[in-house]
Specification:
single chain; alpha+beta; three-stranded antiparallel beta sheet; 14% strand
Length: 206
């Protein structure tokens, strides 16, 4: 999908170079580099190597991708660890903004987090934003694992907003991304995809 992602990322086993695309790219680059430096040593994040006007280079982090582990039948372990790590993030007063297994690396045996990636949308905010978006990722890309979402919520260990509030947060984020794609390429493929995703999400019932 053209404009399906907000960055292009390449790595060589030592470094990872991320170039930002679309509206507000400089702001998102600045946001990610700032949060990675702020969080280093507090939660698992890649170490910043270099920042330019258009790119962020970080050290390579070993680990298995969360979505690959979900496909390999490790959903209980992955979702539990997602909940545990999200609680740590929120205790720092931070919302990740695109939280879920798609932006996490895990140790392939212990399933402990080796890195939380893609902080370009991070901001102070309400915890329900991340809770709802991780749920949205599972419901959209791994619907077979929806029955295991209680593993995620239980491991989070804090009160979880009810379905109406989570659903509203999912819809708000879909609208944000629809608007983002509309600013990038009005009437383009990304806008079409997010309009369809918004319609699908609107129809969900708990």
């Amino acid at each position: 999908m053209k404009h399906g992602y907000t960055n292009s990322t390449v790595g060589d086993g030592a470094l990872v170079v991320k170039c930002y695309q679309g509206p507000e790219s400089a702001f998102r680059l600045s946001t990610e580099s700032r949060y990675l430096r702020r969080l280093r040593g507090r939660i698992p994040v890649p170490r910043v190597h270099q920042v330019t006007a258009t790119s962020l280079t970080t050290r390579w982090v070993e680990g298995s991708h969360g979505q690959d582990l979900l496909d390999d039948g490790r959903a209980p372990e992955v979702l539990t660890e997602c909940g545990r790590m999200l609680a740590r993030i929120h205790r720092l007063g931070i919302v990740h903004g695109d939280y879920g297994p798609q932006n996490m690396l895990f140790h392939p045996v212990t399933f402990e987090t080796t890195a939380i990636l893609d902080w370009e949308w991070a901001h102070p905010g309400r915890p329900v934003e991340d809770l709802a978006w991780c749920e949205w990722i599972v419901r959209t890309h791994h619907p077979e694992h929806v029955p295991l979402l209680p593993c995620f919520f239980a491991a989070y260990g804090e009160p979880v907003p009810g379905w109406p509030e989570r659903h509203a947060a999912m819809l708000a984020r879909c609208r944000d991304l629809l608007g983002f794609c509309g600013r990038w390429e009005p009437g383009g493929g990304g806008e079409k995809v997010w309009r369809e995703r918004l319609d699908t999400t609107s129809a969900w019932a708990e």
